[in-house]
Amino acid sequence: MASARSAGAGSRSTSPEGGNPGDNTDWSALANLPDKSKGKVHRPRLTVNLFWRSFGLISLLLAMVLGMWYWAISRQSEQGTLAGQQLVSTLRLTRALILETPPTRQAAVLKSLEDQEGLALRQRTPANQITPWPNSLHVQALVRTLNEQLREDVIVASAVDGVPGLWIGWTVGSGQYWFQADPSRLGMASPLGWPWLVGLVIITAGLSAGFVRLINRPLKDLSFAASRIGEGEYDSHLDESNMTNEIRMVNMGFNRMARELAKVEEERAVMLAGISHDLRTPLARLRLEAEISVADEEARRNMASDIDQLDAIIDKFMDYARPEGTHVVPVNVSAVVEREANAFRDKSQIRIESRLPPNLMVKGDDTELGRVFANLFENARRYGRSIDTGIARVKVSHVLAGDSLIITVRDYGQGVAPEKLSHLTTPFFRGDAARTAATGAGLGLAVVKKALQRIDASLELNNAAEKTGLVAHIRLKRSLMPSNVGGSHNT
């Protein structure tokens, strides 16, 4: 089946060296021409190195923080001065009212003033218990304004004889009095207190986080691009017009490296496809020669088996060298699994149990998914046979995960050493002897991973929890088309 699926899939690509003999085109000169498809890189007019960029951002942050704190301090002094000016006007009016009111009516006037305006006037004595107002820039500005405009040393207290409020000790004529006012009306209740301080701290922390993020953003972009390179995606487009010299040079070098890696990968794929394609013709002649010239039936059968094995290896090369860019459409993955499982008819070697419901739809490509499951089943047939029966038992199940569908293909062989699991999808990598007793190209799981990448899917390999067998988790995107639930199929 593998041979039938890949027949005609590989075709030789024509390289510059394979052109007409009379063609005198200088291919090396053309190769060094700039790639106009990527557009012209515009160098910024204003450039700065990384040190001055970081220094400038940190200096700007410090200047903004200091500016906010200076504004807060200035605001406190302004509030204290305004509160003092209001108190000066009130105290002067109260003094004039007391001095010009006959003694017989002073008590009634002061009572009315306290009831209507919340202003109280009491006699000040040495026996009074005074609680000073907490010292702050606000209070300092208030006391300074009162002293300057009233031309006397006033006392500011937050409580007198246990009664809270804004108390001003001053002189009226020949007597000493306590003047009580509502502190909230003068902005004295909490002048830039804890809420203001907490707000300034939050703003400072937010600005710091923003500047640090701005400084680290190029490194984050580079890290993301490097991770994509590690996943085999070479379309890196880091900003080459950054005004910071070091960052711009790193981005340009990284983009150049990504383009070179993409070119090397493309050339390797073309080389593999070309070699695989060229090997088919002599293999076909060998097969025909064996059928005609070899009289011994067993020898002829062994030669045919060897040729089939070589043909299967060529199929792996062809599959791995296929170009990227597969069109994704809704696919019935249940039918694909059933079709590929039916190709493995020899129950003395492998038995496949599919627990997928019928009409389970995913986004993918029928050919690519068929290649994935064919390689997984073949890998299980070769390397996943159980010790007791010598038969590879494979179970296919699924689980829904949001907008994704995870299909699990598990065998019951001896598994793989944990430290080698991450290398199984590396081309030509060999695991331990338990899973490499059979011959092969060493490309099966690499083909699976690459085929899934073409349809925006992923592969994860683990050992089974019971430490018997290898488990492959295939994450596919679900299709919006409906699917039925239930059903099981054994092959």
Automatic annotation (TrEMBL):
Q: In which residue ranges is the amino acid composition biased (Polar residues)?
A: 14-27
CDD domains per the UniProt record, alphabetical: HAMP (cd06225), HisKA (cd00082)
Q: Which InterPro entries match?
A: 2C_sensor_his_kinase, HAMP_dom, HATPase_C_sf, HATPase_dom, His_kinase_dom, HisK_dim/P_dom, HisK_dim/P_sf, RisS_PPD
Question: What Gene Ontology cellular-component terms does the record carry?
Answer: plasma membrane
How does the record say this protein sits in the membrane? Answer: Multi-pass membrane protein
Give the compositionally biased regions (Low complexity): 1-13
Pfam family example for this protein?
HAMP
Q: What is its EC number?
A: 2.7.13.3
Region spans: Disordered: 1-31
Tell me where in this chain the Histidine kinase domain is found: 274-480
Task: Give the reaction(s) catalysed.
Answer: ATP + protein L-histidine = ADP + protein N-phospho-L-histidine
- Residue stretches spanning the membrane: 50-72, 193-215
Sorted keywords for this record are:
ATP-binding, Cell inner membrane, Cell membrane, Kinase, Membrane, Nucleotide-binding, Phosphoprotein, Transferase, Transmembrane, Transmembrane helix, Two-component regulatory system
Major location category of this protein: membrane
Please provide, alphabetically and separated by semicolons, the GO molecular function terms listed in this UniProt record: ATP binding; phosphorelay sensor kinase activity
* Residue ranges of domain HAMP in the record: 213-266
Subcellular location field: Cell inner membrane
Q: What is this protein called?
A: histidine kinase
Query: What is the source species?
Result: Vitreoscilla filiformis
State the organism's lineage.
Bacteria, Pseudomonadati, Pseudomonadota, Betaproteobacteria, Neisseriales
